[in-house]
Amino acid sequence: MSDPETEAFDKLVALLNYPMYVVTTQADGTPAGCLVGFASQTSIHPPRFLVGLSRRNHTFRVAHDASHLAVHVFDHDHLDVVELFGSQTGDEVDKFARCSWHRGPEQLPILDDAAAWFAGEILERFSLGDHVGHLLAPVGGSPPQELETWVSFGDVRELEPGHEA
Predict the structure, then answer these.
(1) Phi and psi, residue 96, nearest 5°
(2) According to CATH, what is the number of the domain 21-37+55-119+141-156?
(3) Burial of 151: CB neighbours in 10 Å, binned 0-12, 13-18, 19+
(4) Where do the Flavin reductase like domain residues begin and end (predicted)?
(5) Quick check: 52 and 39 in contact, CB under 8 A?
(6) Tally of CB atoms within 10 A around 101
């Protein structure tokens, strides 16, 4: 049953088809990564990006001790990598053993099949309810080579998550 106070909001966001990101990080040499839908640019000058990580997520626990995050976008040709990071939990599966990656800025795990990515320093962390916001300042990355159609929420809507949000 829907809450009358949030019914309009719930119906509106159910229609949105926002981009999906794979966010990776590392702390003490341990890589982690997950699929993220709650993320957006928040400032132009200075450039800032906000990533919301679920408190239940393995990546959230690793990110607690991390100084940086990497944010990746994927084209549809690499939906399998997106599904790996969205349907498995690092509590049970070594996702990085199942994909191609290398160390990037700040020793972050960078996924080789990403169409584009950037690394960001975590400037602030703050509660967003069941997620924690990580405000990033970009420190490096690789832009897309061409205009592509990115993986969006509609592509992964039916995916069983590795952890509930």
Answers:
(1) -75, -20
(2) 2.30.110.10
(3) buried
(4) 13-155
(5) yes
(6) 21
